[in-house]
Amino acid sequence: MRVLLITLLLSSFGFARVDASESTHQDALRAISANRSLLVEAELESTRLQQAYAADPFSEVTRRKMENLEYKIKALNEDSERLKTILSQGEKATEFMKDLLLSTSMESYSKKFGAAPPTTAPASPVPALSLPTFPELDAPLTLPSFESQTLPTPPIPSTPPPVAPAPLAPSALTVTPSLPLPAQETLAQKHERALRYVASQELEKASKLYEEIILDDPDDDQAYIIMGHTYILTGKYDKAENAFKNAVHIDPANVDEITPFYQNIIMQNPNDDMAYNNLGYACLILGDYVKARDAFMQCLELNPENAAARDGMKTLETVE
Description:
Distance between the termini: 65 Å
Oligomer: single chain
CATH topology of the largest domain: Serine Threonine Protein Phosphatase 5, Tetratricopeptide repeat
Shape: globular
Number of strands: 0
CATH class of the largest domain: Mainly Alpha
């Protein structure tokens, strides 16, 4: 009975459910990806409900929606963890990296937009103005009379007869309807779209959208951090350097938020040479050359043919 109940609940949430005993790895990976996209939408809706509840904490409807959404998020996570049990260690590490990037991105979104909107204190009633009275103006005004004056009648000028306008051609009568201008996408909506790109692992699109976001808001350090991660994960280390350094320039505390992302990936899969390579570049960008060298050397021990790590070692020789 309990298994049947869980199955019905997951189906009602729109999960791409897969029976772990019969599914292939590709089926499981597709289902995990679908759950990840559903999780983004649920998290975004949760943020909106939290804002609404902060503005009206007595709303029973909003409270119930929040409780249902929390259960949905929990069920999504549990379903994805169940699906991961049939994956190989390498596949689990890859999915962990995707989840970690999404979690980091979602946390950055919450920092910027998750706070409750400020409540506005009710305006105090404005007292009615007491206008002075002027008794002397209460009596009706006496206007002068002009009945005794005879005004001359002005001559009527002769005017030519009116000329009828020429009929317009049918083409001239055609009116092109004006199309409504597209609605301007808000900064929050751009962040939400970027989160969806991250969830679906469209990192190139996410990077470009974060570039637009920082043009709109040059002080958005969280956008710089996520953009830097997407650049490193796609091998664009020069652009990652610019993104991370801008994030640290805006808030020096961000220097401690960047490398743990890659350290967590290594803890999940210590045999992932690219994880060490990415950690090496993150340390190199932040000026921690000792840790960068250690990471690159560990990467090359696992895979001596890793060209990116070789280039990283060459760069270290020029800056140390």
